Amino acid sequence: MNESRKYIIQLVIVLTGIIFLVKLFSIQVLDNKYAEAATSNIINKVIEYPYRGLIYDRNGKLIVFNTPQYNLTVIPAEVKKLDTAKFCEVFELAREEFEAKMKVAEDFSYVQPSIFIKQLSNKDLARIQDHLVDFRGFDIQPRTTRSYSQPVLANALGYVSEINKRQLERDSADYYKQGDYIGQSGLEAFYEKQLRGRRGVKYKVKNVRGIEKGAYADGEYDTLSIPGENLVSTIDLDLQVYGEELMKGKSGSIVAIEPNTGEILSLVSGPSYDPNRLTGREYSKNFSEISQDTLKPLFNRPLMAQYRPGSIFKIIQAMVALQEGVITPNTRIVCNRNIIGCHGPHSYEDLVGAITHSCNPYFHQVMRRVVNQGKSEDTYEDTRIGLANWHEHIESFGLGAPLGIDLPNEKSGLVPSVAYYDRAYNGEPWKYSNIYSIAIGEGENLVVPLQMANFAATVANRGYYYIPHLVKSIGNSGEPLPKYQEKYYTSVDSQYFDFAVQAMANVVESGTGQYRAKLKDIVVCGKTGTVQNDPMPDHSVFIAFAPKDDPKIAVSVYVEDAGQGARAAASIASLMIEKYLIGETQRPYIEEYVKKGEFIY
Amino acid sequence: MRRGEGIFSRMDWLTVLLFFLIVIFGWLNIFAAVYDESASPSIFDMSLNSGRQLVFILTSLVLIIAIMTVDFKFFDTFGFFIFGGVIVLLAFVLLFGREVAGSRSWFELGPFRLQPSEFAKFATALAVAKMLSSTGFRIDKIKNLAILFALIAAPAVLIILQGDTGTALVYSVFLLVFFREGMSPVPLVLGTCAAIIFVLTLLVSNHLYLYIGIVVLAAVVIFFSKKTFGRIALIIGGAIVIAGVIRSVDYVISDVLKPHQQNRIKALINPDADPLGYGWNVTQSKIAIGSGQFFGKGYLNGTQTKYDFVPEQSTDFIFCTIAEEHGWLGSFVVVVLFIALLLRVIFLAERQKWRFARVYGYSVACIIFFHFAVNIGMTIGLFPVIGIPLPMFSYGGSSLWAFTILIFILIKLDAHRMQVLVR
User: At how many degrees (to 10) do helices A494-509 and A313-324 cross?
Assistant: First the structure.
């Protein structure tokens, strides 16, 4: 009896074995998921943060460097017998804060470290280090933060902060991780790739408690961290400090360029802020303070503030007209104030006189001759041809488009084109009488201070410029970016620049610049500008370069709401020239006048 | 053949070989499970499980020799005494035992620890064999069946009281032995059905489908069976009972089972729901096994077991080590070794003329089978995590000794099978 049952039992046993082997085959051989999970189980990616590149000034003085700071990390599973009260006391935390932070860490992972307190300073560390042994599960992770040798150049340098969500999403190369630092503006942002270096990764084998057990695969997949490249800036730190001192309490900008290289010697934006405020633990608090300041210290005026060029534009107009052959230096034009207003006692000037006295009717006529050359029977068509031609000339001076400085957010300014007026007049016909205000640098024209400084440099060079830039040497290359090594020529011949140089020399020698811009041993060439700013006082503008025959520095200065260009701007520009060429001013009264800041009387 | 002579020539060496292959293989893997490359220890290191397991292996040789020298009638004659003694020990351990990880199942004598519940298995097998082989014992009598159930229930209940449900579950496997000896298959079939329904209830979240399935199934069965009133009533009654089981699953899960037992069942259904919590063991065990792939990572090169991702790796989860380091090939060898041993034991049982020996042989096969099936089943996620060792393979003195005794009593009985007068 029951003989068949022995087969049933054996069948059950054999079937069980077969089921096991099939199931094992499926999870061991067919499914790769487990092998991958096993690898991720045991591997601990240890990231080595590279040292961010330093930034020096043109004379080798350190501008930006790194200081160590420390993150307190926690592995929740390893926190045992914590004296919470003591912990809160040492780290100056409220009980609720502590619990909230702990919860965040636990939600992230029990066995992996996460940041508990960010950016402790050296001083903080010294205070807590002795207590740390009592707080099991907590550890210190060194990171670095930016520091600045002088509280200047904030807008040009930019700042570094933790990468935000949007940037993480846009990071198509997938380099950044949450919590990484990234340059947010200025040079820090523009040269982010060079400055950041390359993160190193070490793969460590860990056990279930996260304790390291050595290198994974003998370190075969490890990469070393590569420190960021150092930058040598074109900035002259002393000049920069001096410029910021002069701009203190004023709104505006100073741009100084070395003409024969395009290197920016100083880039002042006022008002500014101390870059040290946007580092470390106080970052968030300070950032919201600075960004909400009504004086807009984050607004980088040299690149972003667009003004009408004013009378300075007349020098360009003169050169374009000479190039077009519609006037000669000897052309005299009646100062007919019926069409357009003018100032000062003059009536029938030649070109030099018209520039020196800033004669508006003169340049109204000059512009008409440039635009309406009779190339078409139709006045309207003739204007279109003429304006297009004029536009090309003006653009060759680097106006109407961003120059391409190595900083983000450069504005283009505006040089009205044919298309611009077509749009503005909605397709209705227009001719010179509709657009003449651009002749004297008013109307639709817009420039930024950087473009004006570049124009001064172009005149100093008698016809060409290098794109203004802030970094002259990247890493060990000793060279700037390739585009900063290229000469850009204007469409105006060098001989007409000689004329412009002479005219600008006259302005300082005997014209509007003679009182505050003239120097004893140095021939300064300059041009004042007064930009109308109704109903507020005019903006004071001055561009200059010096010395006349071997120019070493070209400057543009904008001081907002400060009245005539001959006062605030001319004073500051000449002081900058003196400081750079001689080392100090020989006219302390001018310095005092600038610092006092009362320009309207 | 004369008694007491040439016992070694009459032993079934194939069983012995399979036994020792499993023991040695197990020992090597216990070393792998505790191996720490930074210390590069020796397998003989007495501070490691592998060193201690070697001692257990050597002492079990003493046990083997003792069993082989004792008169084979001893086990028959003293079967109930041995069983009674073990029951007393089980009761004692409840009173004087040491609590380890929530269960009070260990005696502690100086450095030695003994787990009586391990020895209760062979003792129960002896008692069951003796009972079934007693003269005129008919298994189809309700009274006799009740006695048999009492025999297996006694140790099981005591072990449950110790807090070791897993080991207690082993005793359910005697139903298979009873089945072989003529018990109606109904309890087995019902038990299996209940288990299947239980699991289905957990797997299918919308119970409406199950009810529909039962109705359809009942209709089909009625359609094909004799359409007597009694039969139809029985089927409908059965269907209602099954529906009741489904209704009661939630109650059983949440009110009868302890939280850790609930979690083990949840982990079986969906280990990914909480991989760091209750799903940890199953998830990590599967990762370790799965990462072994076809050829394995090589001896002592397993990372998951070595770095403690797998819990209880030298005892209950020892199979992970072999599957990780030796891949599917290693798994294959282990499974085949066990199946071969089981079939051989059944072969031995079947060739006994003495019912006592045959019943005992089946008990041996079924006990080992239960351990094997549940242990490997839980490591690969086919079974809830029930903490019972892989026989002869897992680390542990009590367990190894108990299985040694279990198997070698059968070998002893088998060696003397020609001397038994068939009653």
Answer: 140
- Please judge whether B309 and A21 are an interchain contact, meaning their C-beta atoms are less than 8 angstroms apart: no
Report residue A568's pLDDT band, with 50, 70 and 90 as the boundaries: very high
As a whole number of angstroms, the distance between CA A19 and CA A11 comes to: 12
Residue B260 has pLDDT above 80, yes or no: no
Instruction: Note whether A69 and A181 are within 8 A (CB).
Output: no
CB contact under 8 A, B287 and A14: no
Beta-carbon separation of B382 and A27 below 8 A? no
In the numeric block, which tokens belong to residue A319? 């050169």
Q: Do A213 and B307 touch (CB under 8 A)?
A: yes
Between vectors from CA B268 to CA B264 and to CA B272, what angle results, nearest 5°?
A: 100
Scanning every residue of chain B, which has its alpha carbon at the shortest distance from the alpha carbon of A207? B307
**What's this model's pTM, rounded to 2 decimal places?**
0.64
Q: Inform me whether the pLDDT recorded for A212 exceeds 60.
A: yes
Tokens 């070209």 correspond to what residue? Answer: A554
- The structure tokens listed for B96 are 């004087």
Neighbours of A288 (CB within 10 A): 10
Omega of the bond leading into A68 within 30 degrees of 0 (cis): no
ipTM: 0.88
Give DSSP secondary structure letters for A534-574: TTSPPEEEEEEEESSSS--EEEEEEETT---TTTHHHHHHH
* Residues B184-199: tens digit of each pLDDT: 777 777 777 777 777 6
Q: Looking at the complex, report in whole angstroms how far the Cα of residue B110 sits from the nearest Cα belonging to chain A.
A: 32
Among A253-262, A454-463, B265-274, whose mean pLDDT is lowest? B265-274
Structure confidence at residue B277 (pLDDT): 60
The residue in chain A having the minimum alpha-carbon distance to the alpha carbon of residue B179 is A5
